[in-house]
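Query structure, 167 tokens:
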């Protein structure tokens, strides 16, 4: 995920936009997160004083298991981040922005993207907002239709009466 800033740095331009589909090459990152290789990168590089800052949005997809119906689906996540482009990583740096190292006008987004994916991936996700889930009795995925179970909801008070009668 290399981006060349040489031309931009030499030009009089103050802003450079990059909207591109990039490829994640980090195998570990791909496998642990079940990521799609390709993700959308929308970035704006700004010259600020002598530095370059980056305002970016990434949209990535990964294989997720729905928390409600347990079906696998592809979840898409969009995350925003800000970064500053530096010549040297400053260990004491405590600002919220991510630092991206530049070497000979080239920056590698790998670490920043890695970090953003780690921070933005949801703990739980639903295949769709109105996912019906699975039947607690028979386990059927109710998105595919009703099951044979009686979906009549018994009033808890009647339920108590029923058990009393059964005894
Ligand atoms: Zn679902
Ligand atoms: Zn059922």
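Result returned for the query:
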């Amino acid at each position: 995920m290399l981006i060349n800033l040489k031309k931009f740095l030499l030009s009089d331009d103050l802003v450079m936009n990059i909207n591109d589909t990039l490829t994640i090459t980090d195998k570990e990152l791909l496998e642990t997160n079940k990521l799609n290789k390709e993700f959308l990168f929308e970035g704006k590089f700004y010259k600020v004083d002598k530095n370059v800052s980056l305002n970016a949005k990434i949209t990535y997809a990964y294989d997720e298991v729905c928390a409600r119906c347990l079906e696998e689906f592809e979840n898409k996540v969009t995350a925003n981040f800000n970064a500053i482009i530096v010549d040297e990583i400053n260990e004491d740096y405590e600002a919220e922005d991510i630092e991206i190292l530049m070497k000979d006008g080239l920056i590698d987004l790998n670490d920043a993207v890695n970090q953003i994916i780690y921070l933005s991936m949801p703990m739980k996700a639903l295949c769709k907002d109105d996912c019906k889930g699975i039947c607690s009795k028979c386990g059927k995925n109710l998105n595919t239709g009703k099951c044979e179970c009686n979906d009549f909801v018994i009033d808890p008070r009647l339920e108590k009466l029923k058990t009393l009668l059964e005894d």
